[in-house]
Every structure is written in C-alpha cells, then in structure tokens.
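Researcher: Here's my situation. A collaborator sent me these components and asked whether they could plausibly form a single complex. I don't have experimental data yet, so a predicted model of the whole assembly would be a useful starting point for our discussion.
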Amino acid sequence: MTTALRITDLSKTFPVGRSLFGRPKASVKAVHPLSLTVAQGETLGIVGESGCGKSTLARMLVGLLEPTTGRIEIEGAALDTADPAVFGRRIQYVFQDPISSLNPRKTIRQIMDAPLRHLHHMPARDREARILEIFDSVNLRAEFLSRYPHEFSGGQAQRIGIARALAAEARILILDEPVSALDVSVQAQVLNLLADLRAQFGLTYLFISHDLAVVEAVSDRIAVLYFGAVVEIGPAEEVFSAPKHPYTELLAQSAPQVGRPLAAPEAKGTELPDPLKPPPGCAFANRCTRASARCRTETPRLTPLGTASQAACFHPLNV
Amino acid sequence: MTAFFRLLARNRLALAGGIVLSLVVLLALVTPLLPLADPDVTDTSNRFRPALSDGALLGTDHLGRDLLSRLLWGTRLSLAVGIAAALIAATIGAAIGIIAGFYGGRIDNVIMRGVDMLMAFPYILLALAIVAALGPGLLNALIAVAAVNVPFFARNIRGITVGIANTEFVQAARLAGLSNPRIILSEILPNVVPVIVIAMSTTIGWMILETAGLSFLGLGSQPPQADLGSMLGEARSALITHPHTSVVPGLMILVIVMAINLLGDGVRDALDPRLKSGALSRPMATTRVDRQSIPDHGEKSGDSLLNVRALETQFHVRGRVYRAVGGVDLHVEPGECLGIIGESGSGKSVTALSIMGLVASPPGVITGGAAYLDGEDLIGAPYRRLRDMRGRRVAYIFQDPLSTLHPLYRVGDQLIEAIRAHRPISRTEGRVRAIELLDAVRIPNPEQRISDYPHEMSGGMRQRVGIAMALANDPDIIIADEPTTALDVTVQAQVLSILDDLRRSRGLAIVFITHDFGVVAQLCDRVAVMYAGRIVEEGPMRAILSAPRHPYTARLMACVPELGGGKRRLEAIPGLPPVVDALPEGCAFADRCDRTRPDCRAGDIPLAPLAAQSVRCLHPVGTEQEHAS
C-alpha cells in the first residue's frame, strides 16, 4: 500500500494578545505535534468536539495556514511553503458551509473555471468540456452552470463544492464537515456520491466530522482528537465498538442512539481545559474516571494496542 | 438590475429625487446648446436687474451678467467637480481600504494609522491647508475635497473587506490557484462595489457642498468663471438690497443636494441586502391572524394541555404565498414529551412559534386554526394576554443560546428580569430564585456563574442558562426548538438528561423540535413527523420506531447512520422536498416515494389511524399483504 499523505510532527501555535510592536503575551497550542499517515485510496475519519483543533489541522494540510513545526509529504514529495496554489493541485478542500464557500457574485461556470485555468492553465475550449465531464460525475445538470450560488439548495451547492475540488485533479480531498449543514435525507445522497467518486477516481479522503455515526459509516480508519492531539487511532469498526481511550468511550456513549436510555455519561466537570493554561499530563485527566496521579504529571504518548489501534492513555480500556 | 430599479422606484421620495436630479443633470448637459447669453460678459449699465425682466429671465448680477446663463454654467461646473471629487475619493479610498483590509497585519496597521491621522484634522481646515499649499483654483479645490473624503471611503471599505477576506469562498479561490491581486479583483471587488456605490451616493451631495464652500471663500473657481459657490460669494454683499442674486444659486444648491440625498438614501435601501430582506419593516408584537373560521376543540379536547387544531401559517412575500404550515393538529398532555421531527423547511419551527404568536409579521400570517391552552384559544388572543402567557405558561428554548442571550448583560440579571416580568418580587428575592434555577440546570458554582457574561460561558453552559430562563416562571409547557443542535455530543447528552430530569421532577410538558431521530428516541413519549408543512405520521415513540408506516418516516430513519454499523453505504432519499409556494396536488412526498400510485396525486390525503399511530398515506408501509389479498 503506498502512502498518499504523511505528516510528521505537524503543530500550530497561535500567538494571543499581541501588542502593536511587542511580542505576543501568550500562545495557544491549537494542534500539538502530530504525525499521521494515510494510505492511497483510504478514508481517514477525524472526529473531535469543537475546539479540538480539527479545522486547524485541515487548514494546514491545504496550505491555508502555515504550520509552526513539522512537515507534510504528499505521495513522497514534501510541501514546504504554505501556498495554496502549490498545494491545490495535489490536495483539495471541501468546505462545511456549501453556500458560503461559493462567491455569490459569480456564476457556477466562473467558479468551476478557476481551478482549471489557474492550476492547470487549460485552454478555454478544453475547460468547457472538462467542466461538463466533472458535472456529469457528480450528477449535476449542465444548465446549472449559468446560474448563481443562491439559486441552489444546500445539497446541490455541496455537489458544486465537490465538483470544484475534483476540477483541481488533486488526489487527496480534505472533507471538513461536508454534510453537517445538510438535511438528513440529502446528507446520505452526498455521502454516497463521495463513496462513488472515491472508487471511480481512486481518491484519498480525510473526513472531518463531529458526527460519530457518519464518520464510522464512511471511514476505513478513525483518529479521535482531543485538545489538539490524537488520543486514539484505529480501524473504524473497532474505535467506537471497543474504545481504548476513555475519551473515545465517552464520545461513543454520548452519541444519541435509538433504543438506549438517556443517561448523562459524565457527572464531573465538562469544560475543556483552558488552552491558555494547559494542564500538565493528560488533558483529559480531569474528566476521566480512570485517572491516576501519573496521568496528571506525565503526558501519555500514542502507543500500539492490539493489532491496528493506538491510544494515548496509561490506563486503556478493552485490552 | 431591473429588480434594483423596481425597488428604487417603490420609494417615492427617492423616485422624486431621481427625477429632479436627472432634470438638473440634463439641463447641465444641454447648457452649451441653449441660446444663452455669454455668462462672463459684463454690462455694468444693466446691473442688478430683477428677475423676469426683458432679456434676462432671472435678472442680472452686480456686474450685469445674465444670472440664468451663469446659473446653468455654474451648475454644470459644480456638478462636474462634485462628481469628479466623489469618483476620485471613492477610487483612492476603496483601493486603500481593500489593500489594508485584505492584507491585514502590519500593512493594515500602517495604512489605517495614516488614515486616522488625516481624519484627526477638522475637514475644512485640512481642505483649506491643501488649497493654501497648492494655491487657489477649481482644480486644487477638487483635489482638496477628494483628499478630505478619502479616509471616509478607506475606513468603510476596509471594514467590509476584512469580513470578505476571511470568507470561505476567498479561501476556495486561493485553493483554485488564484494570486492575491486576482483574488482582489475577481472575488473581493465585486462584493465591495455595492458598498462603494452606497457610500458614494450618500456623499456626492456633501462634496458638492464642500466645493461650493471653498468657492464661496474665494479658494475655488476664480472670477469670472461661475460655479454655484462663487456666485453665492459674489452675491453676498448685495444680500439685503438685491436678494435674488443670492437666492438663485442658493436654491439650486438646495435642490441638487436634496435630490442627491433622497436618491442616495433610496439607492442604499435598494442595494443593502439586509434592508432588502425586510429589516426595515418592523415586525408586529404578535403574528397577524387572518382566519375565516375557528375550529372547535375536537374530540381530544378533554384533558389536553395544549391542543392545536388545523393550524395554518403562511408567509406572504412579494405576491407569493409560502404555505409553511398547512393544517397541523397536535395535542400535548400534561407532563408529556412530544417530539416534532422534520427536515429544514418542513414547518416544524413555524408551527411552534405560531402557538404563542411569535412568527414575524410581516411576512407571516396565521390563516387558520386554533391553539387551545387549557381550553383558551391563543391564536388571535390580544397582545396583553399573550404577553402575560409567554414565559409564564408556555416558554421557549432556542437553538443558539449565544444569540438569544443579550451579550451586554450578566446572565443573572437576564434571569432575574425574566422572573420579575411575571412576579412582583424584589431583586434580592429574584437573585435567590435565579441561583436556584442555575442550580436546577446543574451549573457548577451558581453563586459565581450568575455574574458571568454570556461570552464567558461555554455553549453547553449557555444553553443551560437558556433552559433556566425557560423554567423561571414554572411554565406548563416548554417548547424546545433544536436546543442541542449547536452543541457537541458529550454536552448534548448532558443537556438532554437535564431536560429529562426536569420534566419528570416538575411534571413539565415538553415539545421537542429536532431533525435527529436518536435524540427523539431517547427523550420523547410521542412523535410527530412533519413534511412540507404537514404532519405525515404521528404516534407513540416506540410504535413508530419499530414499525414506521409512512414511507417518508421509514426512509428518513434508514438515512440516519447508527453508531456501531461499520463502514457501509447509506440509504438516501432521491430528490428534494417540494418548495412550499408550489406544493403538488395530493401527497407532497409522491415525487420522492417508491410506493407512489396514481391516486397519491389525486387529492388531499387525510391523517388516518393505522395500528397505534396515525398516517397520512394511502399505501402505508407494512400493508402489502392486505393489498395482495
């Protein structure tokens, strides 16, 4: 299996409270040094709650944010400069809000034209043919091309967003909550389309979502993020059915599920740690029922557990 | 574009301004073609001739020059200078603003501090200084007026650009390989142009006045050349003896500036998207009710706490009628939890808001039905009565607690206000009660958190405050509209369990609106599924979960992936829900349904009892055998 994407010690630190000329007063680690590999044709699901750093990670991967440390390798070649135009041909991004990711004052044709023209310098005649080809593969009609974004429903607009990402001919797509703005019945249409496209074009996906069931349904492997770090990574069928990290277990128990009685899975403090004053040791220790003294002084690292899983926990479950 | 002109023409004042201004501009344009006397030829023997005298319609000035001719030539010049100054100021100001806003950081800092310095001078002083440095003359006055107005445009446009530069479509353009200059030209500029036009249309009049002011002081146009300001300046000495020489140019300035300002306001209103969507029309305190007949209690009247009968709510927007709610029957028993489930646009929120008259009017109108709370019809109840019931009998919890809590008041003060709205108690008593409420929704350290501002709390905590506020006056029913949709799963689980505990300990009835079957299944006793403004299936939670009868319910449940199922293909419903201003005849789901037969599209389908539930379907799921036999 060849590696499509390899990231090594990628991290992002944001300065906080910068004065006019002086140095920043403090800094927030949005993503702690993080290493991941994604195989060609694989879908890696990334789950986590708001503020866990999943969007920061995604934006670094497409060059919209410059990483503080670390390197990104796509199909063996490193990308060092944070220039979306360089990244764009190899890795593309599908946004969460389909309508606001389309310029309201451009027609769909102009929007679709941009990546072909600026990334691939394709002559005008070929561009039209290529756009029609892509539109066909995402089940959109050619007559939509001369319309404006506000004329579309969320599901259709998200297809246009996917079509734009395909036009760049990148082989890796970052899908940042691609269906969370859509209705349930339309969400399934888009997820199935994504699965078809992956098979048809041999794409590799990074699927970011807060919806555990959706992530589980589309992913081969799942990484769980908490407070800017991966706390567990493993095969999709194992992560939520046999969680190793207590946080993963908490997530799995919290997901609303038909036929399970309602019970607050957590009685203790529920707030995330203050990012300006990160606690020593494991960031989850304060919410964890299994925490020991060691958890509060030493930071656990990702360690292999079982055949294919890894978890960052001193007292893992289900092993 | 035609829509813009139609909107503009609807505004009578703007239309009048536009007509007057076009007349003035037309006159100024054709001035060289008119048979007018030379404006600069002096004839001192005929000085100060009154208006309507022979050969001089408006009279002559102190040098015997024809006033009509000078007025028209002067207007031409003043308009040209004013418009030129506005264009120059807008172009330079917008360019500065876009560059500062787009690049941000240090570039933004340096540019905007420079602009601030320019703004720190009183504008007339600055203009005088510029003219003093460059020397008097109309061109220099134009430069001065333009320069003085650059900061106004720069600041305005910078603010807008900062917002646009961080939007997703600009990021998408970067990923499509566009360079920064290209992004500015093709993504930012088209979205900024309306703002530039609005700013210009409201400032041209101002700039004409400023130019006239400089000319009045003798710093603008030089004799004998006429512009409106210099005409006024020259007539000043004869203001008492020969007032017509001042009145003529003065009136023209008044007419031009009034016309431009009226038109400018109209342009702004027509272009501003917020105003277009009806922000200018203030909603009424309760939803407008316009119903032909009042339905009776029906057979369920007996002990229902809330009994909604044949409720119809429509939105009337520009001649189109959107039937958001098309005849909904609901009943809620004391202490019961009713779930209303549906996708966006199914009318679930509008149904809930209609009960207490909270749908914004215009454009909302309740066109039929009744909502009996303990036998009293709330639809059409007078505002005083509704206001007394809102919060005390029926309380609401909304989706986004950040937008329902006032950002500038402490949460405690907002809670106390909610309590005191219905009860004559002191602030100290209110505070005690507020702390009790925060404790009831399990906020840790309520004595301290009561003095937090909403932004100091996390989303889950804010929603708990929202629930506490709904509980403030011990209502009988809480209507919760997607209260956990914006929350993370772990927080959602906690909020749901709080709601569940409260309803059991206090005997509260809850109407829980959501799109999530999992949530409904855990919390509710009974569920109503809505599609295109109507209930398509209703019944006990367990019955519907185990055997959904309406094809829409069944397929919607199949769409929702469940945790633990592994990687798989999901069931999807093809197509889209119908738009509620063009509902099809018969079943609204027929176009997306795989069980459709000709009779589905033939006419209205009633909500009929089937097993434990009621279903609005002619060919419900699970009845195949009966059909076959």
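Model: Some features of this prediction you could bring to your collaborator: The mean pLDDT of chain A is 87. The CA atoms of residues 226 and 255 of chain A lie 16 Å apart.
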